[in-house]
TrEMBL record:
Protein name according to UniProt: ATPase, P-type (Transporting), HAD superfamily, subfamily IC
UniProt subcellular location: Cell membrane
Keywords of the record: ATP-binding, Cell membrane, Membrane, Nucleotide-binding, Translocase, Transmembrane, Transmembrane helix
GO MF terms, alphabetically ordered: ATP binding; ATP hydrolysis activity
Family statement: Belongs to the cation transport ATPase (P-type) (TC 3.A.3) family. Type IIA subfamily.
Membrane topology recorded in Swiss-Prot or TrEMBL: Multi-pass membrane protein
């Protein structure tokens, strides 16, 4: 089979269309907007609107209606943007397929598959079109996606495979007979279109926070209504207070702000080659305390080249540039002859690998290690015969692959999996040790020069072997891995290297990149204790190397560490890594080299397979978590300042008039507060983000509560109440009197201004939980600058643009009033700086 020609494939693609499922029609934006107007809080506020109208307060009624609509539009805009961001992330997810075209295997975008293509599948691939099996070797397909049946099926030549299923084992060539909308999957997808993903843990936690606050608000509101009635106020007035208190406290804008800030973080991560598959993974990433990383491709470049070959007849050095098929070998002639024989077998075991020249370089196609073997054969000028053969592809448990052809059996794989199958192996152990010590990956190649009759099943084929030799492969470490590892250490994140490779090779690489910890712990998968707690204790060190690990070991390691209280990030790329990736808090798959199965089980996909990208994503996750708490603190502080006038009014039995009106509370919530909160959500990671462990746990913890309710909120409240009372007093009002309307309006305007200005200071104070504004400075977040400018402009409008001052009940302050209101800025900053100084002393920094 030679497959289609590229020209024919292009023509069919043009005629039949792309191999993609028809886009599920999202819900209409207007419908989404409507949803924002009729959720629980909105309904609560609509009820208030109606009641206010019935109670004869049309202005309040309209004002609340405006709040609901503005809030809804705002929430809609944020969620819409977040949705679009998530959609873009999905589009970035790599989807590739290997096809035979123009007589050679090629990797193409899965969307470019056409009917008539010869699709080459191997373990871990997602089948991306329907087709008929042409040839199959140890081929098993997991159809659970389509049928719910969890036992893999074994389609043979002539049988069908369907898009959406996964290759569990083996390989096959498939003739594509339906693509895109014509596949069986498309029919099913149309049925399941409506399914919405379940809410994330973060969303649930936030929802709880919002619910508790809202219900508290409602209860307080009702309480105030009672107090007002007791004080002998008319019911309408009491109602007004109740609504004011409730509206002041309900954090209706919080959820969309959080969603948007997660979406923004996800986008930032994507631009750094880290693709999160669920938005809340952003937050979990930030909380990571233990990274289990593999070696090949993540810490190293996965650019393999054979540099040394050991044979029983002597050692040969191989020279050449990258994957260039032209190179030289040097060693004793007898050894070179033996290496030729070895290269024949090794090449047979890697039939799919080859090199292609593009952009003036030799590029590998297929598994880099197999390509390196292919290049070795080319450099020795050997041409592997490719007669009819049975293949038993590599699997990470057996750790070898084999081919049976007319001449016998050829096996390539990890030395410890092959040597036991060989009769003579003197000198091999020493040779392995020497190669591995240099950080070389060692492969053994063996052969049985005759067929034995029954070669069905690898158990029968892979026996009675003759060792041809050992291949030492060089795979250089990635250049900036050492820096990323160091930054994990300052962040208090522990690291372990988990690899299927030889312990000595693993150790050498761990040393080269600076991963190996002080206790130099190098373990092997088959020596790990069976007991979960014992395993957890053993591994709970920084810089552990675990070699010869199977996918099952990975799963046990993830679970054991989680039981030690760790938030575990685990990388994986193989077909059997799915369970470990799912079990880990953050499963990380490789976008460039990993299998589709691993990618679909992962929470994070590294588009560049780079360890440094994991660390960059963790940093962004941490920054986002901090941002969410920043604007939570900002919001809650405002609530304290808004609620205080109502409490004082109630506690004084009405002897102290209300400092701010309900409408002013609404103006604060919806007018001046929105943008700074958003801007705080866009705060960038700084040099403190990766310093020390992250205090994780719930969003609202002691620090948030202490700062909002103990420091910032009271400072702001005191300043605005003081400004209010001083203006009243200077205007002639005395305790217990009812102030004159004009005086009250100016005093209210002053209190209102004090809160807005206090919030301005608060926004800057919230940029850090430990450093005062004198340290953080006011630069570094341009959005916050704009937000504050906007906040001041809106303040001006509320104070000066008729009829707003009359409607809100707050007139522009007098010059002295301005001074009093301005004093809120230094007051908030001072309170903040003082509490941070005390905090620093307490934790001794
Ligand atoms: P790593 O953690 O370094 O990616 P793997 O689990 O992929 O290790 O591989 C484990 C061992 O199996 C390797 O050291 C190598 O000896 C052998 N091996 C890996 N890939 C192949 C292959 N395609 N064919 C034969 N043997 C292989
Ligand atoms: Mg590997």
């Amino acid at each position: 089979m030679t497959g289609l020609t590229s020209a024919e494939a292009a023509r069919r693609l043009h005629d039949d269309g792309a191999n993609t499922l028809p886009k599920t029609k999202g819900r209409h934006p207007l419908l989404l907007l409507l949803e924002q107007l009729i959720h629980f809080f909105a309904l609560m506020l609509w009820a208030a609107t109606a009641l206010a109208y019935i109670a004869g307060m049309p202005v309040l009624s309209v004002a609340i209606a405006i709040v609901v609509v503005l809030n809804g539009v705002f929430a809609f805009a944020q969620e819409y943007r977040a949705d679009r961001a998530a959609q873009r992330l999905r589009d970035l997810m790599p989807a590739r397929a290997t096809v035979r075209r123009d007589g050679a295997p090629q990797v193409v975008d899965a969307s470019e598959l056409v009917v008539g293509d010869e699709l080459l599948l191997e373990a871990g691939d997602r089948v991306c079109a329907d087709g008929e099996v042409l040839t199959a070797a140890g081929f098993a397909v997991d159809e659970s996606m389509l049928t719910g049946e969890s036992v893999p099926v074994h389609p043979v030549a002539g049988e069908l495979v369907h898009a959406g299923t996964h290759v569990a084992e083996g390989e096959a060539a498939v003739l594509v007979n339906a693509t895109g909308p014509h596949t069986k999957l498309a029919g099913i997808a149309a049925l399941t279109q409506e399914a919405k993903p379940p809410p994330s843990p973060l969303a649930l936690q936030l929802h709880k926070v919002v619910m508790v606050v809202a219900l508290t608000a409602l209860a307080v509101g009702v309480l105030f209504f009672g107090v007002a009635l007791l004080l002998g106020l008319p019911a309408t007035q009491g109602f007004l207070f109740a609504v004011g208190v409730t509206v002041a406290l309900v954090p209706e804008g919080l959820l969309p702000t959080v969603t948007l800030s997660l979406a923004r973080a996800a986008q930032n991560m994507a631009s750094q080659h880290a693709l999160v598959r669920r938005l809340d993974a952003v937050e979990t990433l930030g909380a990571t305390t233990f990274i289990c990383t593999d070696k090949t491709g993540t810490l190293t470049r996965n650019e393999m080249s054979v540099v040394k070959v050991w044979t029983p007849a002597g050692e040969v050095a191989v020279h050449g540039d990258g994957y260039d098929p032209v190179g030289t070998v040097d060693g004793p002639p007898a050894a070179v002859d033996q290496v030729r024989a070895l290269a024949v077998s090794a090449k047979l075991c890697s039939p799919k690998a080859h090199v292609r020249r593009s952009e003036d370089r030799w590029q590998p196609v297929g598994d880099p290690m197999e390509v390196a073997l292919h290049v070795l054969a080319a450099r020795l000028d050997v041409d592997g015969p490719s007669a009819d053969s049975i293949r038993y592809p590599f699997d990470p448990r057996r750790r070898r692959s084999s081919v049976v052809d007319a001449d016998g059996v050829h096996v390539t794989g990890a030395p410890d999996s092959i040597l036991p199958l060989c009769a003579a192996r003197s000198g091999a152990a020493e040779a392995i040790a020497a190669l591995a010590k240099d950080g070389l990956r060692v492969l053994a190649v063996a052969r049985r020069p005759a067929r034995a009759g029954d070669e069905s099943g690898w158990q029968h084929a892979e026996r009675d072997l003759e060792l041809l030799g050992l291949v030492g492969l060089h795979d250089p470490p990635r250049h900036d891995v050492a820096g990323a590892i160091a930054s994990c250490r300052t962040a208090g994140i522990k690291l372990a290297m988990i690899t299927g490779d030889h312990p000595v090779t693993a150790r050498a690489i761990a040393e080269q990149v600076g991963l190996l910890g002080p206790d130099q712990l190098v373990l092997q998968g088959d020596q790990l204790p069976a007991d979960r707690d014992e395993l957890g204790r053993l591994l709970d060190h920084d810089g552990v190397v675990i070699a010869r690990v199977t996918p099952e070991d990975k799963l046990r390691i993830a679970v054991a560490l989680q039981h030690r209280g760790h938030v575990v990030a685990m990388t994986g790329d193989g077909v059997n890594d799915g369970p470990a990736l799912r079990a880990a808090d953050i499963g990380i798959a490789m976008g460039a080299s990993g299998t589709d199965v691993a990618r679909e089980a992962a929470d994070l996909v590294l588009l560049d397979d780079h360890f440094g990208t994991i660390v960059a994503a963790i940093e962004l996750g941490r920054a986002t978590f901090a941002n969410i708490r920043r604007f939570l603190t900002y919001h809650l502080t405002d609530n304290v300042a808004e609620l205080t006038p109502f409490v004082i009014w109630a506690l004084s039995g009405g002897s102290i008039p209300l400092a701010i009106s309900v409408l002013q509370v609404l103006a604060l919530d919806i007018g001046t507060d929105l943008l700074p909160a958003l801007a705080l959500g866009a705060e960038r990671p700084n040099e403190h983000t990766m310093r020390g462990k992250l205090r994780t746990g719930s969003l609202i913890d002691k620090t948030v509560v202490r700062r909002a309710f103990g420091v910032l909120g009271p400072a702001e409240a005191v300043m605005s109440m003081a400004a209010f009372l001083i203006v009243l007093h200077l205007g002639g009002w005395r305790f217990g009197q009812t102030p004159d309307t004009a005086l009250l309006a100016v005093a209210s305007g002053t209190a209102f201004t004090a809160i807005v200005l206090g919030q301005l200071a608060n926004a800057y104070a919230c940029r850090s939980v430990s450093r005062p504004v004198t340290k953080t400075g006011v630069r570094g977040n341009r959005l916050l600058g704009y937000a504050v400018a906007f906040e001041l402009a809106v303040l001006g409008i509320f104070l000066f643009l008729p009829p707003l001052p009359d409607l809100l009940g707050g007139h522009a302050p007098s010059p002295l009033g301005w001074l009093l209101a301005l004093a809120a800025i230094p007051a908030v900053l001072l309170a903040d700086a003082a509490s941070k100084a005390v905090g620093r002393r307490l934790i001794g920094r």
